[in-house]
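Late entry, written up from scratch paper. The run itself happened at the end of the previous shift, but nothing got recorded in the book at the time, so transcribing now.
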Amino acid sequence: MAIAKAERLMNLALCLMNTRRPLSKKELRESIEAYREAWQQGSEEAFNRMFERDKDDLRELGLVIDVDENALDGEIGYLARRDRNRLPEIALDAEEAAALSVAARVWQQAKMSGAASGALQKLRAAGVPFSEDTEPSALQPRIPAREAAFEPLLVAARDRRPVSFEYRKAGAAAADQRSVEPWALECWRGHWYLAGWDRDREAARVFRLSRITGKVRSRAGSFTGAVPEHVDVRAVVASFAGEGATATATVRLRKGAGFPLRTKALDTRQVDDGWDELEIPYGNGLGADLAEFGPDLVVLGPEELRADVIDRLLAVAGLRSLDEAGAHA
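Output as recorded:
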């Protein structure tokens, strides 16, 4: 069975790479014997499942497959362009090879660690000088990627494929549907973030992966906007988190709560046995972070930040105003 699948994948790759125009699923089914047998002995659905699995496997192996929706009178066509699937000669010195070796050991999850290990094997076969006798360090770097959205977004960013997902902003009562062209993923302070082009808002946006709910779905078509040469995800996230802000905000925080706020407080004063007063950096998007502390935090100023946090808390409670909240009390 393993040999049969390997032969099928090879045949599919050869078909996609040795054509000057996109091929439809029907043409691929007629060209590859295993697909033709699956269709004749099973059904159209059985063939479609096999084809989608094989296409995903080839992409995992590194083959870039382009999808053209309007290639064949409305039918979707598939093509693996040779110029996009040809690697230049790789030449790494010992220090660069060592850095790659360390990076490959960083990944904790099985799928990414397997891909990293496979990449090292390919580089070794190409003659890259990896040192096999390096003593393992007592401290090993690790990057956790536990969010279910991580892998589909990584693949979509690599293949330049638009996606859609439901996203719940901080302090929001419900998730919104977002349509995004993913650019880059980056880990910052223990959280993964996606930078990309939000099609509905027609602007660049950054999304925290832990706030993506449901399944990430791949959408047909290609990117509509240009991808920046450099995407500084950390800088954007930092600005929304108030990092480097020149303005300050005053909040009252319950004892024993809000440790992330306390670590970046510019000044802390004790009010009584139950509350402290903090001066914290005030940047764009701070209201969303403060709303997460709920009844453990009170914003004293500035007024626009206080109003923003109140609006977010009312939205979570399903209320429209403080007057309505009083009526329900």
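The chain is about 40% helix and 25% strand.
(Scratch paper discarded after transcription.)
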